[in-house]
Amino acid sequence: MATESSESEEEGKITGGNQHLIVEDDLREMGKKAAWSVSSCKTGNGVSSLRDDNLETYWQSDGAQPHLVNIQFQKKVKLQLVVLYVDFKLDESYTPSKICIRAGDGFHNLKEIKTVELVKPTGWVYLSLSGNDPRETFVNTFMLQIAVLSNHLNGRDTHVRQIKVYGPQLNPIPHQPFQFTSREFITYSTVR
Amino acid sequence: MEAILTDCVQNSLRHFMFRNAIFLCERLCAEFPSEVNLQLLAACYLQNNQAYSAYHILKGTQTAQSRYLFAVSCFHMDLLNEAETALCPANEPGGEIPNGAAGHYLLGLIYRYTDRTKSAIHHFRLALSIDPLLWAAYEELCVLGAAEEATVVFGEAAALCIQKQYSHHGVTSPNLHTSNEDYNLVSSRNFGSEDVSPRQLKHTQGNNLRDIPGNYHGAAGLSGAASQPQNGGPSNMPFYNTPSPMASQLSGVAPPPLCRNVQPNGPNLNTVNTDGSPRSVVNSTIQAPRRKFVDEGKLRKISGRLFSDSGPRRSTRLAGDAGANTNANTTAVAGNGTNSSSKYLGSSKLSSVALRSVTVRKGQSWANENIEEGIRNEAFDDSRANMTTTSSSFPSGDVKSLDQDRATVPIGGVVISSSKIISGASEVLGLLRTLGEGYRLSCLYRCQDALDTYLKLPHKHYNTSWVLSQVGKAHFELVDYLEADRTFSLARRMSPYSLEGMDIYSTVLYHLKEDMKLSYLAQELISTDRLAPQSWCAMGNCYSLQKDHETALKNFQRAVQLNLRFAYAHTLCGHEYVALEDFENGIKSYQNALRIDSRHYNSWYGLGMIFLRQEKFEFSEHHFGMAFQINPRSSVIMSYLGTAMHALKRSEDAIKIMDRAILADRKNPLPMYQKANILMSLEKFDDALKVLEALKEYAPRESSVYALMGKIYKRRNMHEKAMLHFGIALDLKPSAADVATIKAAIEKLHVPDELEDNL
């Protein structure tokens, strides 16, 4: 059942989680064009479980904290939203608790852009990358790193069942400075 | 026993009891193994969709019919090489193709699908010359872009051909001959054999005129009209658009053929109007006034000037020859011109008239007519050749028609059968002429002309699903989606089971963003036929409209699976791949579509778009150019071609093309916007602003227009105006990315341009 996801005022604590993944229309999933890697994993629970659209399979880390998920793109992309599926009821001490999202050009210059603390999450957790400034709606970057700094109940390793990364929709008309909004423009803008 | 079994099998086939037929036929073949029986068995298998069985039993047979059936089974099993060798053995290059027209048609299809377009065209043309009513061959020629004008193809020669086919009507032969002679006369007189079509057209015109007068004549004393040269009378009607001189009289009254308002000329007209079909009243044998009508239209289009001459000619001739009758006819015709009658003439009348004339001409059984014809012919000879032909026909026709009008008994009783054939053939040909011309024009993407041609059809035929979907398709190509929507929904009401053209309808609804209608259409189509590619195309469009591109892609792939030769499904797959940014597969899909139909301009456009995104501008320009060659009237393609040229730094050409696009379709705001873009990058800010101001009129709620204007004002340091426009742009709710860009631009409004290179 869908529970509300709420964000408390102090330091970005997030509780609960949505059962259903709902994103706005003007976002599209960008993960397919990226190279995904993890800092460590148990055999059989590797990085592919993060991207298989199957909530039964999960990635299990197998090393020292922090556990890292690295998402590398071939060119700079605009990213707006990161969504994770984690479930305290199923994973208990494996559930991530403190997550830090970093972005940069590569491993050498990652900079933290967001840190959140999850409190017993049970479902999809939305982590927006936008700043307060309208100019900072997107993060334009080559690489994104999701770092699990600590787990619930001080667990060592972590389970994450699914991760999705969203950015803005492509302009359907290439080489246009702005996207079209009115029906007259859109009707005439393509041949189908 | 053999005879009984054969009879049983054929009976079962006639009644669609295939299992019975197959069983009995197998017994027949076991008992009396012969090639004929084998062919019968193969026919049973083919009817029962068991092409593979037919393939196996016929493998290696040599008789013509067996080879044909074998080729058909190979074609169904997609073994095109074997089919080709069966029809046209490699070691017998001069061998006869079995089954004449059908064999040529099949061979043409094989060549078409193996990319040998020239041979395909050659064979389709041969098929048509052998059997002029083989519409499918003409259709293929149109699709390949190599069709001759329908009037030529479905012209007099065709009529003669059909006549010959039915020439077992011995009695009528003399008549037939006469008719033939008539044609010959005409041809020889007027032009040479080549001019059959125009001649025919004229004839028809004349006929129409004649018929009309005849009709009128019979019905009402249209004496008044007689004097008026009815040149274009009948013809004019249908061609309300065409300015044929003939139409002078009728043009006034020529509403679209579909309207049957021809009233004024008395009963004849009325009758004609009512049924729109050939004036059966007048001519018992006139079946397809439409045909004439069509011919008229064609004639009109083709030889408008001819008509003009003919018009007066006709009237004069009519007056002269037919005397009162003819005059009456002319008057009738003339009346038509003046009255709505002409209109009606146009539509059905013309056809009827034409028919009549045709019949008359053809059925020269009528002795008098022959004589008259002769006279007429002479008379006509001096006048324009065309005219003469028609005129001659007219007089005869008129006379005949007159007779017909009054007399219930056709004059040429004996020849009725033969003349019936002739008239029947002429009617059919007339109908096919219009349809063929319309189809050819729409394949050449001369959509407005195609629409006009289709409008010449009589109501009965226009309101069928095939014609309506073609009309809808023409509107779609003209980017007139609302009209297309209306036409297609009418087509669906006419025949809700028909799937022809429904894929285009779903695209129209996609463009209009009518998701309710689109999903309803898709559901209906799927429930009608789950195995038709059009249904899955509609379903895919539905998902695509909701931005669920993956599911849409699956649906389009299903459509492809159902029919590998359905080019549009491949194109739609390509569009979905592009939406999912899978450019490689997109390119493959588009190329598949082009392999099937190289004149499918949507695929060329799709490839151009991919290359534009990938910044391979030369490729992009080449592909847009190919699309443009195929469909030179599409303003959308022109504007993209311009964009590609601009990216190649050929901005002058780009602007020229944009202007053409703007002229081509006033309702399309895109070329203006692109032009402003180009002007801005060329730093011609004032021009750009002018264009954008004009554009504001067309699309007042388009945020990108204001955003672009704001940008230009910003570049010119007119900060207040820039601010104003950015504000309006934001109010119009642009996409999130644009909101960010615009807001960033606003923030940086007071920063000098050199410092910020973002906007």
From TrEMBL, chain A:
Assigned GO CC terms: anaphase-promoting complex
PROSITE patterns found in the cross-reference section: DOC
Superkingdom in the source lineage: Eukaryota
Keyword RNA-binding: no
Domain (DOC): residue spans on this chain: 6-192
Pfam family, one: ANAPC10
GO biological process, one term: protein K11-linked ubiquitination
Entry keyword set: Cell cycle, Cell division, Mitosis, Ubl conjugation pathway
Function according to Swiss-Prot or TrEMBL: Component of the anaphase promoting complex/cyclosome (APC/C), a cell cycle-regulated E3 ubiquitin-protein ligase complex that controls progression through mitosis and the G1 phase of the cell cycle.
Family: Belongs to the APC10 family.
Protein name: Anaphase-promoting complex subunit 10
Biological source species: Herrania umbratica
From TrEMBL, chain B:
Extent of Low complexity compositional bias: 319-341
Family annotation (InterPro entries): TPR-like_helical_dom_sf, TPR_rpt
Domain of life according to the entry: Eukaryota
Region entry Disordered, spans: 214-240, 305-341
Subcellular location: Nucleus
Keywords in alphabetical order: Cell cycle, Cell division, Mitosis, Nucleus, Repeat, TPR repeat
Record's compositionally biased regions (Polar residues): 225-240
Entries under Pfam families matching the protein: ANAPC3 (PF12895), TPR_1 (PF00515), TPR_16 (PF13432), TPR_19 (PF14559), TPR_8 (PF13181)
TPR repeats: 101-134, 533-566, 567-600, 601-634, 703-736
Record flagged with keyword Nucleus: yes
Keyword Cell cycle recorded: yes
GO cellular component: a single term: anaphase-promoting complex
GO biological processes: anaphase-promoting complex-dependent catabolic process; cell division; metaphase/anaphase transition of mitotic cell cycle; protein ubiquitination
Family from the record: Belongs to the APC3/CDC27 family.
Protein's name according to its UniProt entry: Cell division cycle protein 27 homolog B
Organism: Herrania umbratica
